[in-house]
Amino acid sequence: MAPPAAPPSRARPGDFDAGLARAREAALGGRYREARTILAAIEERAWDNPRDLRRLAEYHGHMNRPVEAERCCARAVELAPDDARAHYDLAAASIAIGRIDAAEAHFDRVIAADPRDWDAWANRSTLRRATAERNHVAALDRAMAAAGRDAEARIALGHALAKELEDLGDHDRAFSVLKAAADARRARLSYRVADDVATMAGIADAFSAERLRGAPPPAAEPGPIFILGLPRSGTTLVDRILSSHSRVASLGEIQDFALALVEGAGTAQGKADLIRRSAAMDHAALGRAYRARIAERDPDAPFAIDKTPLNCLYIGLIALALPDARIVHVRRGAMDGCYAMYKTLFRMGYPFSYDLGDLAAYRIAHERLMNHWRAALPGRMIEIDYEALIADQEGESRRLVAACGLDWEDGCLDFHRNPAPVATASAVQVRAPIHDRSVGLWRRYEAGLTPLADALRGAGIPLDYGR
Asked: Which of 312, 334, 346, 297 is nearest to 235 (CA)?
């Protein structure tokens, strides 16, 4: 393989750390073009320093620029071929740009060099479906035995082993291993689901149906596209379908709406105060601030997707601030969706997902909030059911594209060929055609998931799609 070409830009002399600090400040302020210019200027300065290249790649990753991150990581591996962390970073960047075989090879290198890099084990197991001929179950069992009582090992190795056991059809052992790993993860978190439940109830109170009657009517011409829903509900799949359209670009999971909100609402004393401030703020100004931020990210995209799942919390604000926004809510059968979250080891966020009681409480509160938005903003959301999309890919895709104000393009059916980067937990799955293996999967674990099912049923939430 030819070595990565050095970037053509000419960096002015300056301190690398100071440059990173300036880029971070610019990005936090929504000045993404300025941040990109700074990073390009210091990349040449870092080109022969593997440590600085890895730090630069991390910044590119934070800005949803995995192609640039992969370039820096590849150069770092070239300079330091025996550095396990350099291989780890290159594996992560390779996943985002669809180089799955390369990612697996780099994770293999990491594990061979440092068998106690538990995250490498966990990530490697997500890259392909395990088969009887090709799996890591025996190696994972040995690694868990060697790790002893190491909590981080139990979490990472347990999630990896559970995933591969599920692929192989050993569902009883898979759930036993998964529960132990999830329990270990939950024990290390300082989290109260009651706080999130109260926040969602407070949002519904602040953005009542009466208050939202003053929202501007939806604009005829489409604007930003928000794809939202609970994690693992199918939001990445819907994002890939829409972003396969020639006029649509996905910005990925970004925090620009939340950042514009915090800037516009002013200093708040906790979440409850922020909710009150957000209801009273200048919503037109919020919309302008958000548009300015996403224009900085991709000024050439006619239509941009913001695929941040928990923008569900801001649907009332989005309706008030952005009358031309298209709001796509992706739903999934409650038990399949909850189980998909429960078995995922998220890199960050979603602390409610590691305990069945927390998961039930959060899912019920989410359902109430979405019912509130549905009643207060009738017809404002485009709702896509994951199971319906799986069953009728073309019909549901055509409905989605039309509802977003776009003309149909056949390329939307070939979403798995979309070369655009993906930086979510579904990065591997959306590189393959649609399948129905996950529909009804929770029933394989019905006994273990009984507390979750009982709680959802008690709240009047159907356990399966369409029931």
From this structure: 312
